[in-house]
Amino acid sequence: MRVNHSGEVCAQALYQGQALTARLPEVRREMEAAADEEMDHLAWCEARLRELDDHPSYLNPLWYGLSFGLGATAGAISDRLSLGFVAATEQQVCKHLDSHLARLPEQDTASRAVVAQMLEDEARHAHTALDAGGIPFPAPVRGLMSLVSRVMTETSYRL
Ligand SMILES: [Fe+2]
Ligand SMILES: [Fe+2]
């Protein structure tokens, strides 16, 4: 759950960074709806983490800074690149949530409910970003993102 929480911190940063540099107002509007849901996700993860008596990752400020920078840079280059980045990121998040759901104990219904709802929302965010004109990222780029996400997952799990 700490990893999920860190992921949502990154989502906040990514969408905020993007909103800062997005050129087309439609892109901004599309992404604002997704960003609103990310706020809910962050709140759910934080609440569940507290219930489990655990602390958020100490690396969150670092993840926030990096994600904000990436979002703002992608947005500054082009709206389509930035939407493509959202789509690729959300797909990555879906993969992680999917595997987490498979590992979560059946009796932890509270955590399962949070993860299942997020999985549904993130899949929709990915579709929305592609429909809005996001460039689908090539496999090597997605592979690299996968690698980065694995490092982030491992370190947030521990710290
Ligand atoms: Fe999210
Ligand atoms: Fe999302």
Overview of the structural elements:
The protein is mainly α and 159 residues long. The protein has one domain (2-158): Ferritin. It is built from six helices and no strands. The protein has helices at residues 2-21, 25-51, 60-77, 79-103, 109-131, 139-158. Helix 1 (2-21) packs antiparallel against helix 2, helix 1 (2-21) packs antiparallel against helix 4 (79-103) and helix 1 packs across helix 6 (139-158). The mean pLDDT is 89. The structure holds fe (ii) ion (2 copies). One fe (ii) ion (FE2) is lined by residues 11, 34, 38, 90, 121-122, 125. The site of one fe (ii) ion has 6 residues, from helix 1, helix 2 and helix 5.
Q: Between the first and last Cα atoms, what is the distance in angstroms? A: 13 Å
Our estimate of the beta-strand percent is: under 5%
| Major pleated sheet | none
CATH architectural group: Up-down Bundle
Number of domains: 1
Number of helices: 6
- Average pLDDT score: 89
Bound molecules: fe (ii) ion
Helix residue percentage: over 70%
Uncertain spans = none
The strand count comes to 0
| Rg (C-alpha, Å) | 15 Å
Structural class: mainly alpha
Tertiary shape: globular
Question: Which CATH class?
Answer: Mainly Alpha
Listing every helix as H and every strand as E from the N terminus to the C terminus, the arrangement reads HHHHHH
Using the coordinates shown, work out and report the CATH topology: Ferritin
Give me some keywords for this one.
binds fe (ii) ion; mainly alpha
Topology (elements, then pairings):
Blueprint: H1 2-21, H2 25-51, H3 60-77, H4 79-103, H5 109-131, H6 139-158
The protein binds fe (ii) ion (2 copies).
One fe (ii) ion (FE2) binds next to α1, α2 and α5.
